[in-house]
Amino acid sequence: MNYNSLLKSYNLKVTQPRIKILQLIDQRGHIAIDDIYNEISQIYEKLSLATVYKNILTMRNIGLIIEIPIVGKKPKYELTKNSHLHFICKECGAIEDKEIIDNLKDIFKTIALKDQFIISSLQNNIYGVCLKCQ
């Protein structure tokens, strides 16, 4: 993935810390800010946690990344991609992406139509216990 182009396409200044943040999110799939900071601070020692937060929030607010709320834990972040579900383990916090099948899309559209609501994207979180934690 070309992170320079990605940042430019969202009208963000290209900086090495921003590139590294995007790389970490892309490599991990889902990652918390503290984990991003712990890894990035080893490379950019003068980079503060506040700066990492500021960059994450900026990227989230413009739609470059998505925040995934996790009950009882800090949220994790992922790159914006096609609509999908998250299976989130309540025990270990693991997140697994699942494709939204057509039947489920139809159900969401039917529900939205009742309120004349237009769906632009879907992000649904389904909580349970993963196989490792069962």
The CATH H-level superfamily of the largest domain is: Winged helix-like DNA-binding domain superfamily/Winged helix DNA-binding domain
The count of strands amounts to 6
* H/E series: HHEHHEEEEHE
The residue ranges in which pLDDT falls below 50 over 5 or more consecutive positions are none
In spatial order, strands of the major sheet run 1-3-2
Helical element count?
5
**Overall morphology:** globular
Main sheet: strands, sense, barrel: 3 strands, antiparallel
Structural commentary:
With 134 residues, this protein is α+β, with helices and mostly antiparallel strands. It folds into 2 domains: 77 residues, Winged helix-like DNA-binding domain superfamily/Winged helix DNA-binding domain (Arc Repressor Mutant, subunit A), CATH 1.10.10; 45 residues, Dna Ligase, domain 1 (2-Layer Sandwich). Helices cover 43% and strands 24% of the residues. It has a 3-stranded antiparallel beta sheet with strand order 1-3-2. β4 and β5 form a beta hairpin. It starts with a helix and ends in a 6-residue tail after the last strand.
